[in-house]
Amino acid sequence: MGFVKVGKVVEVPPGKAKVYEVGNRFVAVCNVDGTFYAVDDVCTHDEGSLDQGELDGFEIECPRHLARFDVRTGEVKALPAVVPIDTFGVRIDGDDIEVEE
After folding, report:
1. CB of 14 within 8 A of CB of 32?
2. What is the C-alpha radius of gyration for the chain, rounded to an integer number of angstroms?
3. pLDDT tens digit sequence for 23-76
4. Which residue, 7, 17, 52, 94, shows the most beta carbons closer than 10 Å to its own?
């Protein structure tokens, strides 16, 4: 599998997340102080969309029940979720954001 262009760096300001469709999945690209991470946009607790939650440092919070995940590893950081989320490789090519399929 390779990388696919999903958007532009300017579309995801620091401290924010934006969802892109990658293959048959929705992936939230998160900007943490200029470093980009990509995670599955679905909370493993109740399938809520993570991009609508707050990005606090390396943690993204599900807005529905406040489960938290580390955007670097997918690790659960706060209940009620117990299953980690998937993460994806990200690279920047000029002004483009590319996410691993």
Report:
1. yes
2. 12
3. 999 999 999 999 999 999 999 998 889 999 999 999 999 999 999 999 999 999
4. 17
Query: What does the block give as tokens for 22?
Result: 């990658």
Helix/strand/coil (H/E/C) assignment for every residue in the chain: CCEEEEEEHHHCCCCCEEEEEECCEEEEEEEECCEEEEEECECCCCCCEHHHCCEECCEEECCCCCCEEECCCCCEEECCCCCCCCEECEEEECCEEEEEC
- Would you say 39 and 72 are in contact if contact means Cβ atoms under 8 Å apart? no
Phi, psi angle pair for 54, to nearest 5° = -80, 140
Alpha carbon separation from 78 to 3, 8, 75 (Å, rounded): 30, 31, 9
Task: Give the pTM.
Answer: 0.95
Residue positions counted in the chain: 101
Amino acid making up residue 42: V
